[in-house]
Amino acid sequence: MKQKTRKKQNSLAKKFPITIELIRSRQAEGYIDVVVGILCFLLVIALAINLFPVFMKKQQLNTFATELVREAEMSGRTDLSECVERLKGQTGLNPQIIWDCDYYSGKKVQLNGDIMVILKDKTDIGFFSFGSFPIEITAKASGKSEIYYK
Fold it and tell me: Which end of the chain is less congested by CB atoms within 10 angstroms, N or C?
């Protein structure tokens, strides 16, 4: 039995002498490890490049919410369409805005009344052509009204 396998090996070695030696040799093993390592590193970098804009959008949404609440605190009201349009133009975002306030009358908030805004926006996370995954980003900010209504 061993002789048959040796005969097969010898006949293969005669037909493909360089290939058999390369398969038995372990000299290039380190090069393959390096290539695989570099490939994995490049995939991680590509993933980071795709996720970075999502973190930037979250930061912009937080800033949007903070500035919107600060404007509401100083004016004592929540109908801030001018401020919203200005912030939309600056950030390029178009979030859904939800107010949660202690209303005095209409859209006015009495002195020391709680003002809270929740902003929601959707973004896609995709990894090249493997598809996109929509996620919802939420930002919250709160404060107290600084205006007294008689």
Answer: C
